[in-house]
Automatic annotation (TrEMBL):
SMART domains: CoA_binding
Quaternary structure (record): Homodimer.
All copies of domain CoA-binding, residue ranges: 80-183
DNA-binding region(s) in UniProt: 17-56
Keywords, ordered alphabetically: Cytoplasm, DNA-binding, NAD, Repressor, Transcription, Transcription regulation
One Pfam family this sequence matches: CoA_binding
Stated name of the protein: Redox-sensing transcriptional repressor Rex
Subcellular location: Cytoplasm
Function summary: Modulates transcription in response to changes in cellular NADH/NAD(+) redox state. Binds to the promoter of the aldehyde-alcohol dehydrogenase adhE gene. Functions as a redox-dependent repressor of adhE expression.
Similarity comment text for this entry: Belongs to the transcriptional regulatory Rex family.
Domain of life: Bacteria
Length: 213
């Protein structure tokens, strides 16, 4: 299942949050959930929940709430979480190493199948305790070609991120999650999401200073 391009980006970004929420409800043996309950669990208003869900047709019935198991399975299919998605990691420094140790597969069906760094990194040529091989970045095109990997995570210094992204495109990557604060120049058929930890922290501090509660 693919996401309709007419769906607003703000809604699309909440899809995984809805999925996690319904998984949590299901684990707690909640069978039905109202838009208010869903909204409170996520931290948004119930009108936003109903508007988001309206893009996908009839997901629930007024007065009856939403079937938790049905919606959990719906979002699993929507997000392709019924099949394991393999991802490549580029940059095995402090952040990259932390991501290698993060157990994605325990929370969803994603896994870092291989990692890359330059030869100067002593981890190149080794395998993590979880079984993830760490290769020389110079071999990335060859290694990616041997897999069905189409997604990559970049955790390299900012001044190297565009060069790395260019090489990923040549290797056939179609989706990039970048932890670099600079915008990448990419072909239109390549999707990119940015994670700027400094910006997120600054935003948090701003809201803390202006919290009237």
């Amino acid at each position: 299942m693919t996401i309709d391009k007419s769906i607003p980006n703000a809604t699309a970004k909440r899809l995984s949050i809805y999925y996690r929420t319904f998984k949590r409800f299901h684990a707690a043996k909640v069978e039905k959930a109202s838009s208010k309950q869903i909204a409170e669990a996520i931290g948004i208003d119930s009108a936003t929940v109903r508007r988001d869900f309206s893009y996908f047709g009839e997901l629930g019935r007024r007065g009856f709430g939403y079937d938790v198991e049905k919606l959990m399975n719906f979002f699993a299919e929507l997000l392709n979480d019924n099949a394991i998605t393999s991802v490549a990691l580029i940059g095995v420094g402090n952040l990259g190493s932390a991501m290698l140790n993060y157990k994605f597969h325990e929370r969803n069906k994603m896994k870092i199948a291989m990692a890359f760094d330059i030869k100067g990194n002593p981890l190149v040529g080794t395998t993590t305790p979880e079984g993830t091989p760490i290769y020389d970045f110079a071999d990335i095109k060859e290694k990616i070609a041997q897999t069905d990997i189409k997604t990559a995570i970049i955790t390299v210094p900012s001044n190297n991120s565009q060069e790395v992204a260019d090489e990923l495109i040549r290797a056939g990557i179609k989706g990039i999650l970048s932890f670099s604060p600079i915008n990448l120049t990419l072909p239109k058929d390549v999707v990119v999401q940015y994670v700027d930890l400094t910006s997120e922290l600054q935003t948090l501090l701003y809201f803390m200073r202006n919290n009237k509660g």
